[in-house]
Design a protein that fits this description.
115 residues, mainly alpha, 64% helix, elongated
Length: 115
């Protein structure tokens, strides 16, 4: 199959099918690296997109507020679609960790609003 034929077929897929293709490609390119890092003292040691200070929990929270992947990529131009795939996979693998981080952040925000 020629690349042009493949491109044509990909463009005819649904958004969810395209997202699956991105995930497959990301997995094949990442060679097992999830692209997520945890560094003590950086963003409280929370899981972040590698080489950034963007925590996974903040991206998950942004999605919950209605942001699409496209909106997130627009808001964070330093991120790639592969970064989002890695973030979603991490959040799926560690949901309790992500929920705890979101709850902790919300509690801090409520405390600062009360002051």
């Amino acid at each position: 199959m020629k690349l042009q034929q493949l491109k044509s077929q990909i463009l005819n897929l649904s958004s969810s099918e395209k997202a699956e293709i991105i995930q497959i490609l990301t997995e094949s390119l990442s060679n097992g690296s999830s692209g997520i890092t945890k560094t003590p003292g950086v963003v409280g040691g929370d899981a972040c997109i590698a080489k950034t200070r963007i925590p996974v929990w903040s991206l998950i929270n942004y999605c919950r507020l209605g942001a699409s992947d496209a909106k997130i990529l627009e808001s964070f131009p330093q991120l790639s679609a592969a970064d989002l795939v890695n973030a979603w996979a991490y959040a799926e693998a560690f949901p309790e960790e992500i929920e705890a981080a979101i709850e902790k952040n919300e509690a801090v925000m409520q405390e600062s609003e009360a002051v």
